Amino acid sequence: MAKYFDVHPENPQRRTISGVADSIRSGALVAYPTDSCYALGCRLGSRDGIGRIRSIRNLDDRHHFTLVCQNFAQLGQFVHVDNDVFRAIKAATPGSYTFILPATKEVPRQLLHPKKKTVGVRIPDHVVAQALLAELGEPLLSSTLLLPDEDEPMTQGWEIKERLDHVVDAVIDSGDCGTEPTTVIDFSGGEPEIVRRGAGDVTRFE
C-alpha cells in the first residue's frame, strides 16, 4: 500500500521531503508532481524501479527515460553538452522541457536508447520537485505518469493513490500540476529536433 503525503506547494515540509528521499534511496518508486504533470520516479540505479515503471506504463526498451535534475551542474554529469547546445538549454531551464542528449558513462546502460546511446534530461520549475531533488542529492529517474490506453496523464494525488496503491510506494500530493507533458527536444544530432510539443514553448527551437 502506497504512503500518501500531503505537501504544501510553496513551502514543502522538510521532514516529509526528507522521509520521501530516504525511501527513494532505499528503492522506493514514487509518484511526484512537476511543472508539467505527475511523474513516476525512482533512484537512478534501481533495476526494480525501472522494471516497475516499464510495467505500469507498458513501455518497450526504446522508451527514453528522463533524468530529472536539480540544476545544470548535476545535469552536466550525465550528458554531453557542447557550447551552442548549452546556451540553448540554459535559456529554457528550469522549465517544462525534456532534452535528449548523448549520455555519459555515468548513465546506467539499461536507461539508454539501445541504438542512439542517448537519454532524456530536464530541470523542473516546481518547488516540491526541486525540494525533493535537493534533499536526494542526485537525479530522479523518471517517466510521465501516463497509463496505457489513456490520452492524458493523471493529475490528482488522491486518484493516483487509489489507482496505483499496490504498484507504487509513495504519492506526493501538492495540488494540481497540469495535464500537459513536457516539450521534448532532441539535440543528439546537434540541431534541435522537436519530438513532442507539450507544455514548453517550442518557438525558440523552431
Detail the topology: elements first, then pairings:
Elements lengths: L2 E4 L7 H12 L4 E3 L6 E5 L3 H11 L8 E3 L3 H4 L7 H9 L5 E6 L15 E5 L4 H10 L3 E5 L12 H7 L6 E4 L9 E4 L6 E4 L10
Parallel strand pairs: 1-8, 2-8, 4-6, 5-9
Antiparallel strand pairs: 2-3, 3-7, 4-7, 5-6, 9-10
Helix pairs in contact: 1-5
What report would you give on this structure?
The chain is of the alpha/beta class and 206 residues long. 26% of the residues lie in helices and 21% in strands. The protein has 6 helices and 10 strands; from the N terminus they run E-H-E-E-H-E-H-H-E-E-H-E-H-E-E-E. The chain has helices at 14-25, 47-57, 72-75, 83-91, 127-136, 157-163; strands at residues 3-6, 30-32, 39-43, 66-68, 97-102, 118-122, 140-144, 170-173, 183-186, 193-196. Strands 1-8-2-3-7-4-6-5-9-10 form a 10-stranded mixed β-sheet, with helices on both faces. Strand 2 and strand 3 (39-43) form a beta hairpin. The radius of gyration is 16 Å and the shape is globular.
